[in-house]
Amino acid sequence: MADKTNARVLQQIRFLKAQDVVFFFVGLIVLCGAFLILITLILDMAQTGIPRLNQEFFFNFPSRFAARAGIYAAWVGSLCVVLVTALLAIPLGVATGVYLEEYASKGWISRIIELNILNLAGVPSIIYGIMALSLFVYQFGLKQSILTAGMTLGLLILPIIIVTTREAIRTIPNHIREASYALGATKWQTVSNHILPYSFGGIMTGVVIALSRAIGETAPLLAVGAVAFIAFLPTPPVMTEAPFVSFQWLMDSYTVLPIQMFNWISRPQEEFHVNAAAAGIVLLTMTLVLNTLAILIRYRFRKKYKW
Amino acid sequence: MVKNIKAEVKNLTFSYDKAAPRPVLNSVSLPVFENSVTALIGPSGCGKSTLLRCFNRMHDLYGAVKYEGKIILQPSGFDILSNEVDPLEVRMKVGMVFQKPNPFPKSIYENVAYGLRIRGIKKKSYIDDKVEDSLKKAGLWREVNDRLKASASALSGGQQQRLCIARALATEPELLLLDEPTSALDPISTAHIEELVGELKKAVTILMVTHNLHQAGRASDFTAFMYLGDLIEFGESSQVFTNPKEEKTENYITGRFG
Q1: Closest Cα partner for B252 from B218, B222, B206, B216?
Q2: Chain segment A133-165, per-residue pLDDT in tens
Q3: CB atoms within 10 A of CB A31
Q4: What digits encode the pLDDT tens for the residues A198-236?
Q5: What is the pLDDT confidence band of residue B70, given thresholds at 50, 70 and 90?
Q6: Statement to judge: residues A237 and A206 lie in one domain
Q7: What residue numbers bound the domain in which B16 lies?
Q8: Do A175 and B98 touch (CB under 8 A)?
Q9: Are B167 and A105 an interchain contact pair (Cβ–Cβ within 8 Å)?
Q10: Looking at the structure, do residues A194 and A255 belong to the same domain, yes or no?
Q11: Is B174 among the domain residues?
């Protein structure tokens, strides 16, 4: 009798172990498949684009001759737009996250706000573009400017920054807050001396990932009127005569890397597709560098704070 | 043994939730004598931690709460629970050490100096002296004086808890609250802290919650036994542990429940 039960248990174990093995291989195959597709895409793009990556390509304006066309206006435009985006979205997003987590009372209102922010993070980016078109471009009269683009992308990544800020703050154990308050610290002292420094790594990780998303966005910028053919740089922010600083560049028209790519790829000539691939490599490298930065920041700060 | 009263709880009734059928603290009255250790004991949920956290208005952090009754600090007559009193002012006068050692992930020095810094003290020589003095009082100076700039998280659990005591002492509180200060520590660190508590009472009045009856017996001068929000018995620890007046107290300390 006992032997029989034992045999049944062993049989069951064998069956469960077989299940384990099957799932291991299914997972491996799926992973390899996804990885292979990605590698193929990147290799294909690299093969087409890399020969085109020379100094002229980086410092030439677009041209109707593919061989003379470059991405000067595009990468400068991308940097300008991301700068505006960062300056607007980071302070606003981090402050909102801190407010919601540390200041707002946890009632149904804050729960509704939380739900809405989560939803906003999932809204298709073209919707932001359409909203920005009617609000920033027409209502505020900001035209098709770098400022409009920065504000649009800022709006787009705001929910991401808010959510990651809140998550970073939530990893700080409550007993650290209590320690600070018990010594007589005010809310702001607690936030500025403890909450923000300890969650800095997590917040920066979220910020960098959000910015790398902003760099690659195309749809909302098409909606607010990025121009693909820009043969000049934005006005320099520094002048030789008083008042020495100029904000004219904010109101200049612009193009960005993904828009430039989109423009080239939609042309019939094969040569322009090569240009698009080369610009794609530049864009991909930028995002990759930002994401690596995010990983490094996270790693550094995770080691720094132990509770 | 005639002692001055340092703090006096008068008819304190408190509940987190106004709709609750019975308050967490039910008209508790209790003296806390100066330069002595008063232990709060009782089974889980009896309200001892809740009472302790009234002394520095910690409950105010978690939404609007209503205290009925008073906690008067002597000799000033300062009512901790008064609506006109800012909880920040209370926490400037009353220090607290928590169940789990909770040093800030900063240097040992910065941990002790933090209370002074938030009070706006900037003079380095003064802070240096205070840090050394507090670490000495907490019995940690000899172990850490050569690495004050090292991170507090590198210390052992017992050292971290003594650091938290030093941090609370640096601002010279009138009253020091200990919320089960040894429950997360090993026996040797626990013995260290108990010894330290005996030393500290010469300088500061201590109110301590403990789950450990032996600890209450060893380390305290007075003991208050609480049960379901009521203060059942208060007296000198020697009396409460050897000759309790109330049957409930006796049942609890002899291990019949709790």
Answers
A1: B216
A2: 999 988 998 888 899 999 999 999 999 999 999
A3: 10
A4: 999 999 999 999 999 999 888 899 888 777 677 778 877
A5: very high
A6: yes
A7: 5-253
A8: yes
A9: no
A10: yes
A11: yes
Tell me the CATH number at B78. Answer: 3.40.50.300
> Is residue B258, in this structure, part of any structural domain at all?
no
- Top residue of B52, B55, B57, B88 to mutate, by most chain A CBs within 10 Å, is B88
Q: Is the CB of residue A254 less than 8 Å from the CB of residue A71? A: no
DSSP state of A193: I
Q: Residue B98: inside a domain, yes or no?
A: yes
State whether A98 and A203 are in the same domain. yes
Interface of A with B in 186-205 (CB under 8 A): 186, 189, 193-194, 198
Which CATH number is A202's domain given?
1.10.3720.10
Helix (H) or strand (E) holding B20: none
Q: What percent of chain B has pLDDT over 90?
A: 76
Residues A20 and A66 in one domain: no
Chain A residues whose CB is inside 8 A of the B119 CB are: 184
User: Do both A265 and A146 map to the same domain?
Assistant: yes
Which residues numbered 164-183 in A keep a CB inside 8 Å of some CB on B? 173, 175-183
Give CA angle at B21 (B15, B23), nearest 5°: 25
Asked if B102's CB is within 8 angstroms of A183's CB, the reply is: no
Residue B12 near residue B67, CB atoms below 8 Å = yes
This complex has an ipTM of 0.92
Per the CB < 8 Å rule, is B168 touching A305? no
CA-wise closest residue to B163 among B131, B188, B195: B131
| Whether residues A28 and A77 fall in one domain | no
- Establish if B220 touches chain A: CB-CB under 8 angstroms: no
Tokens representing residue A134 in the block: 């009617």
Q: Please report residues of B whose CB lies closer than 8 A to that of A185.
A: 114, 118
pLDDT at position A52 is 85
B215 located within any domain: yes
Range of the domain at A69: 55-304
Residues of chain A with pLDDT under 50: none
- pTM equals 0.85
From A35, A52, A69, the end of a domain falls on: A52
Using an 8 Å CB-CB cutoff, list chain B residues near A102: none
Quick one: tokens of B228? 């379901």
Give the pair of three-digit tokens for residue B59. 């409950």
Per-residue model confidence (pLDDT) at position B87 = 93
Residues A32 and A101 both lie in one domain: no
Report the alpha-carbon angle A198-A201-A205, nearest 5.
150
Count of structural domains, chain B: 1
How close B43 comes to chain A (CA, Å)?
A: 23
Contact assignment for B114 to A180 by CB distance below 8 Å:
yes
Tokens of A122: 């999932």
Position A259, amino acid: I
What is the pLDDT, as a whole number, of residue A55?
84
For chain A, the domain total comes to: 2
Same domain, A110 and A23: no
